[in-house]
Inverse folding.
């Protein structure tokens, strides 16, 4: 689930590992989610409108159908929300996000986490200081491991693209599983498995040119995001 995406970012920044170019398999997802963090009102094809979300609370999409499809839609949306930089860099915002999307016990546990070291890495520091920043995350695929009327465990594969001035944008891929639980009439985030892994990671396109952070922002500015549903 999303929290390890943030820790994966910290690990890559510490080791200095930068990815030179995006693989073709993620290019369409990148375009869909560029510049607005996936918050656009459009819906990708194939999904049923009644699956949800039906509303937002503190900027968090909530209100999902009590079904397998609704559980998947909630899990993927919460992946994106929990990976936002303000979740790490703004304690007050983190509390409001957790209050909107997590079960009470999980919200309390995540609020107690110490994000101090992570908040001082370049990307999160830029977010806190409101400096120009590239931050895009997107789910690329999912598999339902277990589903009941009360709880679902969902394996996800996703990516995060980050960049700040002076550092070329980089992409990291991560996979793991998390749970959502039916609570007070909606699916809520109920924790991750703790077994998040790197990848699977496709190889960069051979010969693809590197793009600076400034070029990246300029070329993708103004594109609308897509809302992913099963």
């Amino acid at each position: 689930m999303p929290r390890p995406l943030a820790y994966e970012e910290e690990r890559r920044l510490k080791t200095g590992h930068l990815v030179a170019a995006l693989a073709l398999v993620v290019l369409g997802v990148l375009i869909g989610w560029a510049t607005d963090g996936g918050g656009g009102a459009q819906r990708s094809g194939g999904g049923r409108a009644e699956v949800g979300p039906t509303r937002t609370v503190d900027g968090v999409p909530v209100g999902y159908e009590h079904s397998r499809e609704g559980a998947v839609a909630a899990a993927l949306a919460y992946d994106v929300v929990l990976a936002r930089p303000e979740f790490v860099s703004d304690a007050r915002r983190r509390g409001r996000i957790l209050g909107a999307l997590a079960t009470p016990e999980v919200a309390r546990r995540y609020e107690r986490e110490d994000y101090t070291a992570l908040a001082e890495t370049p990307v999160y520091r830029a977010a806190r200081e409101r400096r120009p920043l590239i931050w895009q995350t997107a789910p690329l695929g999912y598999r339902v491991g277990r589903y009941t009327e009360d709880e679902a465990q969902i394996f996800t594969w996703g990516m995060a693209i980050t960049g700040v001035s002076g550092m070329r944008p980089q992409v990291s891929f991560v996979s793991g599983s998390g749970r959502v639980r039916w609570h007070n009439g909606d699916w809520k985030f109920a924790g991750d498995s703790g077994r998040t892994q790197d990848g699977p990671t496709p190889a960069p396109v051979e010969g693809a040119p590197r793009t600076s952070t400034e070029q990246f922002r300029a070329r993708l500015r103004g594109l609308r995001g897509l809302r992913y549903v099963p």
